[in-house]
Amino acid sequence: MMNTAQGRLDAQPIGWAEREQRAAPRFTALLRSAKVVSGEGEFVCVVRDVSTGGVRLRFFHRVPPDAAMALQLPNGEALEIGLVRSDQTEASYRFAHETTIERLICESGVHPRRLLRLGLAVPLTLRTAGGVLPAVTRNISQQGCCLEAQGPLALAQSVLVESRHLPSIRAKVRWRGGGACGLVFDDTFSLRDFAVLAARLQNPELIGL
Questions:
Q1: Alpha helical stretches, state H, 84-149
Q2: Minimal CB count within 10 Å: which of 49, 102, 130, 184?
Q3: DSSP code of 137?
């Protein structure tokens, strides 16, 4: 799917794409957290402004190098985008398909109020009053994570999350089901720390500026 999009995006010269984006009405007041999904992983960004032709994104690290990616908004919308130009931590992209401003700024969708989650498999250990349990995350957000643990956990149980990839975090079990459970962290990540953590786990070269 992404390879097909890449072919379409490369069909027009960059100068053409820039002119099209600049000619379209832009919403520069829009500031919204989102994520991009690429061949290297999932990365947190902030939507700086949008138009029907494209979008400008700010990252908390170097811009991911992929020329074609998918931009996923918290409401569940996913849009194929192609790189136009980049400068350190900001980049402009054009949409692979025609879209509308209403679609881009609408708060409704598949998950209208869902927190930004990254599908990262992070190995952990959970320290409980009864011992230590190995675990691995299915996804992680600023406020918590979904994981699979090698042992039973009770609702509202307190645990200490430890990993060489994360700082130690105290958390509580919020839900269980389907062979997984959800933890809510006592101390949440700032958006910047969350973004840097994701980059460090997937492509550490993006951290140095």
A1: 101-105
A2: 102
A3: E
Close Cβ partners of 23 (under 8 Å, ≥ 6 residues apart): 53
DSSP string, 27-91: ETT--EEEEEEETTEEEEEEEEEEESSEEEEEESSSPP--SEEEEE-TTS-EEEEEEEEEETTEE
Stated as kind and residue range, the H or E segment containing 8 is: helix 2-9
- Residues 138-196: tens digit of each pLDDT: 999 999 999 999 999 999 999 999 999 899 999 999 999 988 999 999 999 999 999 99
Q: Which residues sit opposite 170 in a β-bridge?
A: 160
To the question of pTM greater than 0.70 for the whole model, the response is: yes
Helix (H) or strand (E) holding 199: helix 191-202
Q: What is the CA radius of gyration of the chain?
A: 19
